[in-house]
Design brief:
The protein is mainly beta and 132 residues long. It contains 1 helix and 11 strands; from the N terminus they run βββββββββαββ. The radius of gyration is 14 Å and the shape is globular.
Amino acid sequence: QLQFVESGGGLVQPGGSLRLSCTASGFTLEDYAVGWFRQAPGKEREGISCLSNKDGHTYYAGSVKGRFTISRDNAKNTVYLQMNSLKPEDTALYYCAAAPVFAGIGTVQAMCVMRGSNFNSWGQGTQVTVSA
C-alpha cells in the first residue's frame, strides 16, 4: 500500500520559516515525480512546486518562487519543502504527492500547474498557518 506521512506544519509568524517533510512507504520515491500542493479555505488546490525524477529540475509557482525550495532524499525516501519568508497568504493545508511517471520538468510542470493531474498518491495534509 502506497502511503505518505507528512510533518512539519504549524503556526509561524510572517517572515518565518518552516520545513515540511513527506516520507513515503510502500514504494520507492525516486521512481516518481513528486510535488507539493496547497489548498486554502474557499480556494482551489494549487500546485506550488514539483520535481522531475528524470532530469532533477524543479518547478515553482510564481507565488512561492524564490522563497520555497523542494528537495528529495532518496536514501530516506523523503521529499521536503523548505519555506522561507512566509506570508499570511501562504496559510493553507499543504499536501505532498507522487506521480508514477518518468518525465522531464516540462511534463511535470504541466501536471503541477493542472493542480496535481496524474498525481495518484497523496499525503494526508499538514496545516501551515502564518499569522502574527
